[in-house]
Design a protein that fits this description.
five-stranded parallel beta sheet, alpha/beta, 5 helices, Rossmann fold, 41% helix, globular
Length: 158
């Protein structure tokens, strides 16, 4: 089933690989202009941008760490400036650390929580800077991160 998203713009956090990339490519195939957010891998983000552009779509990549409120505000500002507004925001970014629980530090836990929970549910939900041109019908979608704390299960298997 296809949905026409012509004239719409979507921002996908964590859109450079995996499920985020699939979401970006599907929304682009349905006609949306795409903003790919990435934290570290510009090369992967540019591959998605090129893949979407090669199929006639419009896409850009913007680096920002969604665990940091100031970077989320910058992400929204740059996306809205480049695209003229946002209609869809998909909070897809997520991280995990693959090591036994006993080896995790507080900093590891903070990194996971700040990206997966605080970043997706708090910063992205409130990321729009005052006066931004978010369209009134903008919709936000949040993915759950069932595997976000996968390393905790790893401890029980050892």
């Amino acid at each position: 089933m296809s949905l026409s998203l012509d004239g719409k713009t979507a921002l996908i956090t964590g859109g450079s690989r995996g499920i985020g990339r699939a979401i970006a490519e599907r929304l682009a195939a349905d006609g949306a202009a795409i903003v790919i957010n990435y934290a570290r891998s510009e090369q992967l983000a540019q591959e998605v941008v090129k893949a979407i552009s090669a199929k006639g779509g419009k896409a850009i990549g913007i680096q920002a760490d969604v665990s940091k409120p100031a970077e989320v505000r910058r992400l929204f500002s740059e996306a809205e400036e480049a695209m003229g507004g946002l209609d869809i925001v998909v909070a897809n970014a997520g991280v995990h650390i693959e090591k036994p629980l006993i080896e995790n530090t507080e900093a590891d836990y903070d990194y996971i929580f700040d990206t997966n929970t605080r970043g997706g549910l708090f910063h992205i939900a409130r990321g729009r800077p005052p006066g931004a041109r978010r369209r009134p019908h903008c919709r936000r979608f949040h993915r759950r991160y069932e595997n976000a704390f996968r390393q905790h299960v790893a401890l029980s298997r050892q």
